[in-house]
Amino acid sequence: MAKPVLLNNITHQHLRVRTGPGAEFGDNQMAAPIVAAEFRQAQAHYPIVFRPTAGDGFEALALFGLAAGDNLFLSNDGWDADYVPLAVRRQPFLIGVSGQELTVHVDENSARLRCGPDEGEAVFLEEGSPTPYLEQVNSMLFALHEGMLEMAGLIAALREHALLEAFVFEIELADGSERRLEGLYTINEEALAALDAAALNRLHRAGYLLPIYMVVASLSNFRALIERENRRHAVPR
Fold first, then answer.
1. Among residues 69, 71, 106, 105, which one has the least CA distance to residue 85?
2. What DSSP string runs through 102-163?
3. Structural domain count of the chain
4. 115 — pLDDT class (breaks 50, 70, 90)
5. Do 203 and 212 contact (CB within 8 A), yes or no?
6. How many CA atoms lie within 13 A of 78 on its CB side?
7. Considering Cα of 91, then 93, then 96, then 100, what sign does the dihedral take?
């Protein structure tokens, strides 16, 4: 179970973090949340879909696999994609809000913290100031925070124009096994094509049109996921 605590340079003076990808760090997940600012880079590798959240909302996900606990981009050699979503890279750190101030927390139960004195990345310098690594983490957390605020507007626009539609993805793999994804949403391309010029202009001026098209373009990556799944389960000859 996660144990997030406020990061500080006294308690965590000698904290070091293992930053590489690995199943032992919880990276063997089939998806991760992403924000609209990531769509352009993410769509080059992953299908981007939407998932309902509590309170009648939605979040965007980058799909890494076709089954729970299966990340087809993760191997003993690392992460096989040029772009890794911020929600993965920021681990084991989280952002908190105290009044008007943003704060950084660390999951003290994270396996990424189990390293020797010469392993991983230091979080604080000897005098207590942040290391370049922590500065980078701070930037990622801030980008995620801002991105989540922006996503609320994008989701509202998608719902206003009825651009979200549920879909079911079913496929039979080369070895005869099947995969099924449900409970996810994508862009309704017919509804998008039917929008008039005024609606398209409003979406463009709000900065939403490009992310929408990035989601549509990303769906071709389902074929790449199937190919990765087939290669993983191929019988050696």
1. 71
2. EEEEEETT-GGG---TTSSEESB-TTSPBPHHHHHHHHHHHHHHHHHHHHHHHHHHHHHTT-
3. 1
4. confident
5. yes
6. 8
7. negative
pTM of the model: 0.93
Task: Look at residue 15 and give its three-state secondary structure.
Answer: coil
In a domain, 237, yes or no: no
Q: How many CA atoms lie within 13 A of 145 on its CB side?
A: 16
Asked if the model's pLDDT at residue 236 lies above 90, the reply is no
Selected residue with higher pLDDT from 232 and 131: 131
For residue 237, what pLDDT is reported? 53
Whose tokens are 């089939």? That residue is 30
Residue in the block written with tokens 């004195």? 117
The whole domain housing 175 covers: 4-232
Residue 235, pLDDT above cutoff 70: no
Residues 7/105, Cβ–Cβ less than 8 Å: yes
